[in-house]
TrEMBL record:
It is a multi-pass membrane protein. It comes from the Bacteria. Belongs to the CrgA family. It comes from Nostocoides australiense Ben110. Residues 1-10 have a biased composition (Basic residues). Pfam families: CrgA. It is found in: Cell membrane. The chain crosses the membrane at residues 30-52, 64-83. This is Cell division protein CrgA.
Length: 84
């Protein structure tokens, strides 16, 4: 039985892979100072409220000063979840 002629295949030449660009990870340089600043400012707000017998930082807010202080601290702690 006669043998069939095989087809010549083109030689495989791998293509150069595109060079991967470095992906910038991390946060901007201002992120950590703002995060820490919010937490410290909130703490100072609450401490000032208690030390001054509820007259400062803003007397008109009354006990809502606690809410403002804790909101500042919570915003700082919330920023820690995105910190890289």
């Amino acid at each position: 039985m006669p043998e069939s002629k095989g087809r010549k295949k083109a030689t495989y030449t791998p293509q150069e892979a595109p060079r991967a660009q470095k992906v910038k990870t991390g946060n901007p340089s201002w992120y950590v100072p703002v995060m820490l600043g919010l937490m410290i400012l909130g703490l100072l707000w609450v401490v000032t409220f208690y030390i001054t017998k509820q007259q400062y930082p803003i007397e008109a807010l009354g006990r809502w000063n606690l809410g403002v202080g804790f909101a500042l601290m919570l915003a700082g702690f919330g920023m820690t979840t995105n910190w890289r």
